[in-house]
Amino acid sequence: MWCCHFSHSPFSVxxxxxxxRVLLSSPPSSSSRTSFSITSSSSCSATAMATHGDxxxxxxxxxxxxxxxxxxxxxxxxxxxxxxxxxxIPCTLPPDVQYYQNQTGSxxxxxxxxxxxSNSPVDFVLGSWVxxxxxxxxxxxxxxxxxxxxxxxDSPNFVIELIRSSPTMMVLILDLPPRKDLVLxxxxxxxxxxxxxxxxxxxxxxxxPEVKPYNSSSLYIRAASSPTAIMVxxxxxxDGGEERMEEIIRDHLDPxxxxxxxxxxxxxxxxxxxxxxxxxxxxKKRDGVSRSKTLEIDLGSSFPRLFGPEVANxxxxxxxxxxxx
Length: 325
What we know:
Blueprint: H1 46-61, H2 67-84, H3 95-98, E1 99-101, E2 107-115, E3 122-133, E4 139-149, E5 158-166, E6 169-175, H4 186-194, H5 199-206, E7 211-213, H6 219-224, E8 230-235, H7 241-269, H8 280-307, H9 309-323
Antiparallel strand pairs: 1-2, 2-3, 3-4, 4-5, 5-6, 6-8, 7-8
Helix pairs in contact: 2-7, 8-9
């Protein structure tokens, strides 16, 4: 997330038809974080519901990216929500966290977090976009989607992030970051990464002439990534580069991202995994370290710089509730 410091976070996921892009909203229900109660007195007013709906619409707009880029994000978000459907509750973040900007309006962002129900392996789904105008006259645009699993399932999480610094330059992060040490748990390496042939998708993308491997400057991020992580820079020429970038997204990134998400559905999130009580403390500890690093290393430094301390503190405080295991 966030250019050079994504730390497997959401800022740092199947068909392309328009009908698949209709995002489903689960009916209000209870979770460990938020309780919903709808009565005749309507504690959740129509105005409040409309406000939250407005935040969701802003998120689904993906207003600053190209058509192919937007379609990919909408399809991935739709696939996740359709797959888990009633197992997710609607986003309940405050309106000024669902959409926020800095004082000058040169940086804007949208954030949606949906918690999983008690019967779901999903802890929460986090999607976002960030737009920041650059001093050079261009802009930085980041779109991301992450799904974090809870302690009933020890499978890897899912993360995708597209970081665009110009119409002809992009960084792609696509990974199923492990939640256990793959040296100590070689069966996980085989089950999640070898048997699923995930590496062939990385190899396919790296064969595209305009693609080069992307190496994060953070050793922690490199250590936290899976051995099949797709981390690449895509650069197209100035002459005709925008069209070529659209072609690469549409014909290569789009199908590969959806195939990786499908693998994650079938072999990770929806696979029957038995996590014994003795295993949970270590899993919880690792999840806690990973999430705290996201807030500490990544967002803690990026947010104040882009949005100012007041806005950054408000957003980080709202996110912290979800990132604490």
